[in-house]
Amino acid sequence: MVKLTCASSFWALPASIRPLFRSPHLVLSCRRYASKDVSPGALTIGGHSYPIDSWTNVPPNILAQYGRKLHVQSDHPLSITRQLIASRFPSFRNHDSLPGVVTVEQNFDSLGFTPDHPGRNRTDTYYINQSTLLRTHTSAHEVDVFRANESDGYTISADVYRRDAVDKSHYPIFHQMEGALTWDRKAFASSEACIQQITKDFEALPKHPLVVEDPNPTYQPSNPLQTQYHSPEEAEILAKHLKRSLEDMVVTIFAEADKGLAAAGHRSKSEDEPLKVRWVEAFFPHTSPSWELEVWWQGDWLEVLGCGVIDQPLLIRAGQPDRIGWAFGLGLERLAMLLFGIPDIRLFWSTDKRFLSQFSEDGPIRRFQPFSKHPAAPRDVSFWLPKTDAPIITNTPATASTAASPAGGQPTEPSTSDQAPPAFHENDLMEIARNVAGDSVEDVTLIDDFTHPKKQRRSLCYRITYRSLERTLTTEEANRMHDHITRELIEKYRVEIR
Ligand code: DAH
Predict the structure, then answer these.
(1) DSSP for 162-203?
(2) Does residue 139 have its Cβ closer than 6 Å to ligand 1?
(3) Where is the region Disordered (predicted)?
């Protein structure tokens, strides 16, 4: 059997290749929304009522989990991870409770996302209506926080929402932490004086024993200096300050992870080799130059964060034309999983005492002790897709289909039963699986993709793995969930089961 990697959506692509997908002819498609998925009228989220329209695609199971605030729940591993990171930025102001419903303007436009950016697609993002969505990243608040101008440095920690793959490291709600630091050029007599201050601040940062690979110049055509706004010296010192600050943060996290491993009787990683990181060029609409920081961890390079020199037009939009600085963003789950050895992202949502009682804000990091392992119930679903001119997205980056994006602009009509079915997008199957099976679905993987040479019809086979973290599922339960998912696929996408 062919094993295909079921890479998830645009957001899951390494940031370094995401710019490729900005090209108009590589933009992913947007499926039409089936209006029967929501009740007519309005949605109430966090005490506010929002009108719905043909863009609405946020399902009830997501709304049911809105507002859990795991990142500030005491003794929760996500909160412990957040605090550990914040402790390396003691002078920063921490924003931990900004509401998750934001405008398209906040989430995309204010950051300079192009109108055809694929992150805007409804296949990737939960829309409440055409102009309102569940934030896809904490950067959605950058402009507002810069505008308020309450501190030179800040962090933003929050829940973020993305339509994405189902597997042990992807969940449609996860948590990010954003950080930024700026200096006010106006506060200095000259640009040189400002650079001198940043240099002084850089020299005061803690030194670390990390091995750092940083082969590229600070800026070059592929990762440009903002020539209109920054002198080369300004960009150089900002990059230096940024990199040292984030290296220090990463050392702290990984040293704690290492201590946790050693305390649990594992061999400490640093005994084998010193901690190693590398800087990789990246692209973000809201920074330039931009980088990702990767850490060598258990035999692999692990992408930990994205960062860069803040896009000056963004600061100008925020009413801070004289401020220059850097910003970063990271996913808290990924770091918490390695810090505590948590093997499945669904565990963060557990209310089971056997999970929650293992973590404490006071005291050292302790490795998670699995309290049970229930058997997996894998089931395959194999189907012919209907013949359609619309693009079919199975999301493997190499084969991502191409179509014009709605670009956050034109709403499309809801589909009705006598219209052609919406094009199949893998994230739709992910969502059906989550809606039907909740946290009892562990993984959905494309295992076969085949086009019949004569019939010119495409067949897909997905393996859906059912496994509860809390109990053993019966054969009947797994079958019932699987039948339900299959029925929804037939009804919504008119697939033909093989
Ligand atoms: N918003 C980016 C994402 O979700 C992460 C990010 C990258 C945030 C660079 C930043 C930054 O502040 O400077 O993928």
Answers:
(1) -----BTTB-SEEEEEEEEEEEEGGGSSSHHHHHHHHHHHHH
(2) yes
(3) 398-423
* Atom of ligand 1 minimally distant from the CA of 136: 4
- Bridge partners of 97, per DSSP, are none
| Spatial contact of 119 and 108, defined as CB atoms under 8 Å apart | yes
pLDDT by residue (tens digit) across 366-390? 999 998 889 999 999 999 999 876 6
- Smallest CA-to-CA distance from 165 within 495, 381, 394, 337 is with 394
Task: State percent of the chain over pLDDT 90.
Answer: 77
In ligand 1, the atom with minimum distance to the C-alpha of 15 is 14
φ/ψ (deg, to 5) at 100: -85, -10
- Ligand 1 near 118 CB (within 6 A): no
End-to-end, the C-alpha distance of the chain in Å comes to 16
Domain limits, CATH 3.30.70.380, in the chain: 377-411+420-497
**Gap between the Cα atoms of 281 and 278, Å rounded:** 10
Which pLDDT tens digit goes with each residue over 273-316? 788 999 999 999 999 999 999 999 888 999 999 999 999 999 99
Q: Are strands 211-213 and 276-281 parallel, antiparallel or unpaired?
A: parallel
Cα distances (Å, whole numbers) of residue 11 to 125, 137, 146, 149, 193: 10, 10, 25, 29, 40
Give me ligand 1 centre to Cα 45, in Å.
25
334 lines ligand 1 (CB under 6 A): no
CATH superfamily of 42-357: Bira Bifunctional Protein; Domain 2 (3.30.930.10)
- pLDDT per residue over 124-148, tens digit each? 999 999 999 999 999 999 999 999 9
Please indicate whether residue 174, judged by its CB atom, sits closer than 6 Å to ligand 1: no
The answer to whether 430 touches 165, Cβ cutoff 8 Å, is yes
Q: Say how far apart CA 145 and CA 286 lie, in whole Å.
A: 14
Pick the CATH number of 377-411+420-497 from 3.20.20.70, 3.60.15.10, 3.90.180.10, 3.30.70.380: 3.30.70.380
**All CATH 3.30.930.10 domain ranges in the chain, comma separated:** 42-357
pLDDT for the residue 244:
98
Q: Residues 323-359, buried b or exposed e (16+ Cβ, 10 A)? A: bbbbbbbbbbbbbbbbbbbbebbbbbbeeeeebeebb
